[in-house]
Design goal:
Radius of gyration: 29 Å
Mean pLDDT: 95
Strand content: 25-35%
Bound molecules: adenosine-5'-triphosphate, magnesium ion
Distance between the termini: 32 Å
Number of helices: 15
Largest sheet: 9 strands, mixed
Helix content: 25-40%
């Protein structure tokens, strides 16, 4: 490809709207442009990288026995009504009507459509297992689209769905997908961690996320410093611990005037105690009514755990007016004593005594609250967010907290969709059975951004060889020197003929500009030709990542490049 002919609008300045490095560099390197919020154009260079990711995903999925198909992006509401998700999916689902006033949505995911296809075409155990995938544009009307390709509204996903005759078969398929994902992300040159993920109300530990480790990640990964345990913070378990508190006699309940003290720290300061002695009372609304949750003042609720524990499909912090109504007091004075709501408490409170909490009355708190004596709790459970003072739930060693970008998710679905949509088959005894499903997603466009988050420096992108849009950048630095241009053109043809992807910077620009653009684009190998190197019958070869420079004789240049590129391609193991 000739640089002069390519739509490659690089930018010198960092665009103000871009918060993260990948977003800035994707814009600056002319890979994407924003059309409107969360919706981007992929320019030629951006599409090249996207295609590299897709090719790796395809190869490994096919290798693992999955088959590619392509399902429609537009889906009729009826299927979503059948699964029940038309009601519960919320505003992320982009809904619209056609000219006949029929309801449709733009697919955010394809469980319904693929299950509908399979229920119509598959009737016998002989046709199973089946593992089907596609690479396709999805739309989710995200509440906060941000970070460019990391959280778009329109984005490209690889989504796969498996159908097995039973759970044992589904476990094998799950394992095969888990392994394929490990190969895919390794081959993309990403540093990633596989973590246990929340699997929602379906339960079970059969859900894993693949996290690219990066400071800008929206997810928090909890990882053991000693054993292999790693989990999304949403899921990270905390075991009930034995109390290390000194044994205290139970003191009599009392009410104290605490004007203006609302937050845990204000109350602790006012009463000259510590936050762990303060009971945090949180009121949540769910589709099954309001509940109160108690935690130690220095702990935080984990809403995902709470939602799973309560087995509700909707859960959010109660708004001010509900808190007023339930407690007869302003926000900040809620407490469990005399509260007429189902109360649940976190394990962390297990053996705590003589606690402080709001009195459900403005400007008053109650002291010396004790479980059983002063309030009845419906249950104790693991309801809080892990912190770095918690031990690993598997081995007890210290935990560390890392940030990650979720690039893949494998999920054992079970019968949720096959039952809702009646996807059945006849087993070898002629009995009708539901298919056991799994689903497997990869954020293809998100990977492009995640790779840049991990691979860049102050000058620009440093593409890992397997994702690079071009493997080699060829730069003649004396565009008006006929000899240099003649040799450069000949080399360009030879490099291409050897099957190497090369961008020829044939522009009539100063070397400084060419080098700056080259560093910004992140092409792994740069070959510079000029009268000086030609006089030695050589070219200067520079590695983008290490900046190491070498003179390579022209006669062996192509062979050198071939060997070098081969060595940097990450092959499946
Ligand atoms: P997240 O937790 O980041 O919102 P999710 O759990 O909703 O993602 P899945 O439904 O599991 O995502 O989708 C599969 C993959 O698609 C994710 O692992 C992620 O890589 C990618 N993905 C999801 N939402 C977006 C988005 N808004 N923009 C880009 N990629 C996305
Ligand atoms: Mg997910």
């Amino acid at each position: 490809m000739y640089y002069s002919k390519m739509l490659l609008p690089t930018l010198k300045e960092t665009p103000a709207e871009a918060e993260t490095v990948s977003h800035q560099l994707l814009l600056r390197a002319g890979m994407i442009r924003k059309l409107t919020s969360g919706i981007y154009d992929y320019l030629p260079l951006g599409l090249m990288v996207l295609r590299k990711v897709e090719a790796i995903v395809r190869e490994e999925m096919n290798c693992a026995g999955a088959q590619e198909l392509l399902l429609p992006a537009v889906q009729p509401a009826e299927l979503w009504q059948e699964s029940g998700r038309w009601q519960i999916y919320g505003k992320e689902l982009l809904r619209f009507r056609d000219r006949h006033d029929r309801d449709y949505c733009f697919g955010p995911t394809h469980e319904e459509v693929v299950t509908d296809l399979v229920r119509r075409e598959v009737h016998s155990y002989r046709q199973l297992p089946l593992n089907l995938y596609q690479i396709q544009t999805k739309f989710r009307d995200e509440i906060r689209p941000r970070f460019g390709l990391i959280r778009g509204r329109e984005f490209i996903m690889k989504d796969g769905y498996s159908f097995d005759i039973d759970e044992a078969g589904a476990d094998q398929t799950y394992r095969a997908m888990y392994d394929a994902y490990t190969r895919i992300f390794s081959r993309c040159g990403l540093r990633f961690k596989t973590v246990e993920a929340d699997s929602g109300p379906i339960g079970g530990s059969f859900s894993h996320e693949f996290m690219v480790l990066a400071e800008t990640g929206e997810d928090v990964v909890v990882s053991c410093t000693a054993c292999a345990y790693a989990a999304n913070l949403e899921k990270a378990e905390i075991l009930p611990t034995e109390s290390s508190l000194p044994v205290e006699p139970l003191l009599p309940l009392g009410k104290v005037h605490t004007p203006g003290a609302r937050s845990v720290s204000e109350v602790a300061d006012f009463l000259q105690t510590t936050p762990d002695k303060v009971l945090k009372t949180m009121i949540y609304q769910t589709d099954e009514g309001a509940v109160a949750v108690l935690l130690r003042g220095d702990h935080e609720v984990n809403e995902v755990k709470l939602k799973n524990f309560l087995q509700v499909s909707e859960l959010f912090l109660a708004p001010e007016e509900v808190i007023r109504q339930e407690t007869n007091a302003a926000v900040g004075f809620a407490g469990p004593v005399g509260l007429n709501l189902p109360i649940y408490a976190d394990y962390g409170l297990g053996s705590a005594v003589n606690l402080v909490a709001g009195a459900n009355e403005n400007d008053y708190h109650i002291i010396n609250i004790n479980f059983d004596r002063d309030l009845v709790v419906k249950g104790f459970a693991d309801l809080r967010q892990a912190s770095n003072s918690d031990p690993c739930p598997r081995c007890g060693a210290a935990l560390e907290f890392l940030r990650g970008i979720e690039v893949g998710h494998v999920f054992k679905l079970g019968y949720k969709y096959s039952k809702a949509l009646k996807a059945t088959f006849l087993d070898d005894q002629g009995r009708e059975q539901y298919m056991f499903m799994g689903c497997y997603g990869i954020g293809v466009s998100r990977i492009v951004a995640a790779a840049i988050e991990q691979n860049h420096d102050l000058d620009g992108i440093i593409f890992p060889m397997p994702l690079a849009p071009f493997q080699v950048l060829l730069v003649p630095i004396a565009a008006n020197d006929a000899d240099t241009m003649a040799v450069a053109s000949r080399l360009y043809r030879e490099i291409r003929a050897a099957g190497i992807e090369v961008l020829f910077d044939d522009r009539n620009e100063r070397p400084g500009i060419k080098f700056k653009d080259g560093d910004l684009l992140g092409i792994p190998v740069r070959v510079v030709l000029g009268p000086k190197t030609l006089a030695q019958g050589a070219a200067e070869v520079r590695q983008r990542r290490s900046r190491a420079v070498q003179l390579i004789p022209l006669a062996s240049l192509v062979a050198y490049l071939q060997d070098h590129i081969q060595a940097e391609m990450i092959r499946p193991t």
